[in-house]
Every structure is written in C-alpha cells, then in structure tokens.
Amino acid sequence: MSLSRGIVEIRTLDELSSLYEIAPDCTLTKEQYRNPLRPYRLIRPEASCQYQKNGKRCSQLHQHGFVVELHDDSKVLIGNCCALNHLGLDDEQVRGDFKRLSATERQNIRRHKIETMLNQRDSLIVRTRAASIEYRKLHSSAMQTLKALPIEVRRALLDRWKRNALEVSWEYLIIKKGKDETGKPYEERGWYAHSFGQFKGLGLWLQLDQQLYQETLLNLRRQLEAVPNKARLNQVELELAEAALSQVATLETIERELHGQSELLEDFRKPANLQLAIQVVSNQKVRAETVKAIYQLMGEACSMNPEKYVAEIDLALKQKYSANGIRIAS
Ligand SMILES: [Zn+2]
User: Fold this and answer.
1) Are 43 and 12 in contact (CB under 8 A)?
2) Taking 90 as the threshold, does the pLDDT of residue 329 lie above it?
3) Do residues 76 and 65 lie in contact, with contact meaning Cβ atoms separated by under 8 Å?
C-alpha cells in the first residue's frame, strides 16, 4: 500500500512516477485493461491519458485520473473522463471499480489528515485549559472594574463603545457684553466645545458576561477528550475527531480575542484614561462617586473629598478658559 511509502495524496506526476513504474509508450484498450490501481488528483494537468479511442491515443493532459494495470502487468494512466465515460461505458463493473477506488482514496486521505491532526490533541487540550484560565482572569478584572464604577458611568461607557464615540468633550460659555453704535447694551452668549481626549480600551470586555467563551472552550475540551486515544479510529470515532478538530479555528479566534480584550482592559485602567470617566456624565453626585471608584481601581487613597475633587476640576477649567459657565458630558 502506497500509504506506507509516505505519499498519502498523489499531487504531482513525479510523486506518481515514484510510486508506479508507468509504461509511457503503451496505449490502453478495453481488451488489455485488467483493473484500476489508484486514483490521483494532481495540482497541475501534467498526466497524459493513454487510453486509445478511435484508433489513436487520447493524450489529453489531465489532473484527475487513475493508474491502471494491463493484462501484461504494465501500468498506464487514464484520465477520469476516459475512465468513466469511455472505458467504463456500458460496463457497470468497470465504472463501479473506479468509483469505489476513488471513494476509498478520499476516505484514506481524510483519515490521514484527521489522524495527523490528532497528534496535536494533547496540545489543543492544554490550549483550551490555558484559554479558560485567561478568560477567568479577564472576567474577574472586568467585573471588578465595572462593579467599582457607578451604573450611569457603566451605561455611558457601553453606549460610547457601541457608537464608537470615544472623544470625551465638554463645552464652556463665554458671555460678551458691550454697547452697539447707538449706545444700546448687548450680550452675546457663545458655547465652545473642547475635548478632554479620547477614551482608550473600551471593548467587548464591557459585556463579557454575554459572550460564550467559557461554554465554547469547555465544549471543545470535552469533545477533544472524547476522541479515543488509539492508532486506528473507527468510522464513528473518526467523525467525532473531525468535528472536534474542525473547531481549532474557533479556539484560535477565542485566544486572539481574550488576548485583545485583556490588553484593552489594561489600557482602560491606566490612570489618565480612568480620569476621563469622571467626565462622561454630568451629574455631580455621580461624578464624585466616579472619583472614588477610580482611586479604588488605581489602588490609591484620594486625599481630597470627592465632591470637592470634582468642583476643583470644574473651577480650574473655568479659570483656564475664563469661562462664564461649563457643561460636562455635552
Ligand atoms: Zn483520455
């Protein structure tokens, strides 16, 4: 069996020639034909069809065909089309042989692919475990962050993330007073927008509870562990293994997403970024609670009363812009 010779799937004419000694000058007729040996699917059409029809050799270059054996033991190549539609014409036995051989070949290739991938089963199980640990770490950090913040701020963050509205802006009021040419006093009020900066690190972690990472990882691990650890799997086991292995791409996606979300959360929790959270709602009481929250998240004690902290921010803004008034979270 050619499998033992290391070529599971014949992909080039060179591979084909290394497995079978093809008689290139022979032609194949129905009378000389004995039986098919093996199908092949080449990458390029480089096999020449040796079937003889209408008195001459077909010679069509093809990708998909069969190695067949003649009564004199020589081996020749026939394209798939000539095999099924000419040599196999009106001969169910011949057509059946070709079709069975193709089915067996496909099955062998599939089995080989799965069994090769199964060598990675242990490392895949280790990866699902590692991803679960990563998930729990991210989950606990995300929950700690969200729980610390007032609900109004959590809602504002979620909304901003969904709208991709990362800019944290505020407005200040300038009132100009004067007299016009006729001496009549006038007052001009103008609001001017200004930015505190852009939020960093908002992401899926804000809704981590709604993601199915944990379930998916557990499910995958169970599936991988359910595949028997033996050299030759039966058909049912093979299908089990194939279903489990088909989820490797899912594992890769989860690993990438967990890593990405952990980085985002880390960015979010940087002190300068946390400061922005004080400015996403206008309610002074909530802003004061946010001050407490961010100091708690930074692991530091706030030396100032939170209400005063907020008032000082606003006062500093007013003074800096000589403003008559300000609007936060505008
Ligand atoms: Zn042909």
Assistant:
1) yes
2) no
3) no
Q: Tell me which residue has tokens 């309610």.
A: 283
- C-alpha 108 to ligand 1 mean position (Å): 26
Q: How far is the CA of 52 from the centre of ligand 1 (A)?
A: 8
Ligand 1 centre to CA of 50 (Å) is 7
Confidence of residue 1 (pLDDT cuts 50, 70, 90): very low
Return phi, psi of residue 121, to 5°. -55, -50
Tokens read off for 235: 């058909």
- What distance in angstroms lies between residue 60's CA and the mean position of ligand 1's atoms? 5
CA distance 11 to 44: 8
Closest among 223, 257, 260 to 243, alpha carbons compared: 223
Please provide the distance, in angstroms rounded to a whole number, between the alpha carbons at the two ends of the chain: 76
Cα 49 from Cα 70, distance rounded (Å): 14
The two tokens of residue 180 are 């016009």
Above pLDDT 90, what percent of the chain? 80
Domain ranges of the chain: 2-117, 119-147+207-263, 167-201+270-330
Cα separation, 59 vs 27, in Å, equals 10
User: Can you tell me the distance from the alpha carbon of 138 to that of 214, in angstroms, rounded to the nearest whole number?
Assistant: 12
Here the tokens at position 282 are 């206008």
Task: Output the CA 104–ligand 1 centroid distance in Å.
Answer: 23
pTM over 0.90: no
Spatial separation of the C-alpha atoms in residues 58 and 29, rounded to whole Å: 11
Ligand 1 center to 67 CA (angstroms):
13
Kindly give the distance from the C-alpha atom of residue 294 to the centroid of ligand 1, in angstroms, as a whole number.
77
The residue ranges of DSSP E strands in the chain, in sequence order, are 33-41, 47-48, 52-53, 56-57, 61-62, 64-70, 75-79, 167-179, 185-198, 325-328
CB contact at 8 A, 78 and 28: yes
Q: How far is the CA of 17 from the centre of ligand 1 (A)?
A: 19
Q: 3-state class of 279 per DSSP?
A: helix
Q: How far apart are CA 63 and CA 30, in angstroms?
A: 22
